[in-house]
Amino acid sequence: MRSTNCVGAGGMSSCMTRWSSGGDPHIIEVPQPLSDDERARAAARDRKWVARCKPVIHQDRYGVPRYYYAAPGCEFGVGGD
């Protein structure tokens, strides 16, 4: 699968092409932990992040469900380490 995106203005343009083996080009597969120790550390990081960030879903003024967090940086996955 090939996905090409271009932007341009004032006679200038820039394009980016991404090749993949198939599926949705906007979804990136993240490798899962392989060992029991890696799984335990990942679970501990997740629990620590949830405890600090306290994610909740609320509808915005347009009725769109959105995540909200208790601490800055949590929307980027920061704060659990």
Overall description:
This protein starts with a strand and ends in a 13-residue tail after the last strand. The chain is built from one helix and four strands, in the order E-E-H-E-E. It is of the alpha+beta class. The protein is extended, with a radius of gyration of 19 Å. It has a domain at 33-81. The mean pLDDT is 86.
The Cα radius of gyration reads: 19 Å
Task: Output mean pLDDT.
Answer: 86
The number of helical runs is 1
Question: Main sheet?
Answer: 2 strands, antiparallel
Global outline? extended
Q: How far from one another are the termini?
A: 36 Å
Strand content: 25-35%
- The SSE string, one letter per element, is EEHEE
- Walk across the major sheet and give the strand order: 1-2
Count of distinct strands: 4
Structural class: alpha+beta
Provide the low-confidence segments as ranges. Answer: none
- Helical content band: 10-25%
Task: Present the secondary structure layout.
Elements (H helix, E strand, L loop, with lengths): L1 E8 L2 E8 L16 H18 L2 E4 L5 E4 L13
Antiparallel strand pairs: 1-2, 3-4
Index terms:
81 residues; single chain; two-stranded antiparallel ribbon; alpha+beta; two-stranded antiparallel sheet; 1 helix
Summarize the structure.
The chain is α+β, with helices and mostly antiparallel strands and 81 residues long. Helix content is 22%, strand content 30%.
